[in-house]
Amino acid sequence: MSDISCGCDLVKAKGRFFRICSVFIAGCEDGILPLRLPWLPPADLEEERRLLYVGMTRAQQRLILNAAQRRNLAGRTVENRPCPFLDDMPADLLATSRTAHAVARPASCPY
Asked: Mind listing the domains of the chain with CATH numbers?
């Protein structure tokens, strides 16, 4: 099998089956997953929980859930709490790592 990466959002993963060994889900932070917007009805939280479950079940060997402790949004730094759905997972299945990585970008990169 060749090394192939593909990306999709949780909604696109719903109803599809891939031959995926490892799944990486980023943004497992309260406010992002579940998305908390003033106009979002609370009933939609259960749908977001189901979408996370769908994404997690696509992993055959390894599942990595990523949450940023801090995130820059609209020019300010925001402290984040982990996704509340993670509280429902057995603690012995979760491993945490608090590492920080600096990303080097070429001078030509505008971001």
From this structure: 10-90 (3.40.50.300)
Give, in order, the Cα–Cα distances in Å from 42 to each of 36, 38, 65, 100. Answer: 9, 10, 23, 33
Give 5-50 pLDDT, tens digit per residue: 777 778 777 766 666 678 888 899 998 888 877 777 766 788 889 8
Alpha-carbon torsion, ordered 28, 29, 34, 36, to 10 deg: -160
If we measure between CA atoms, which residue out of 74, 76, 89 comes closest to residue 28?
Answer: 89
Shortest CA distance to 88 belongs to which of 32, 42, 33, 10? 33
Between the alpha carbon of residue 53 and those of residues 2, 10, 33, 48, 104, the distances in Å are 27, 9, 12, 9, 33
Q: Where are the alpha helices (DSSP H) in 58-96?
A: none
Q: Are 53 and 46 in contact (CB under 8 A)?
A: no
Amino acid at 39: W
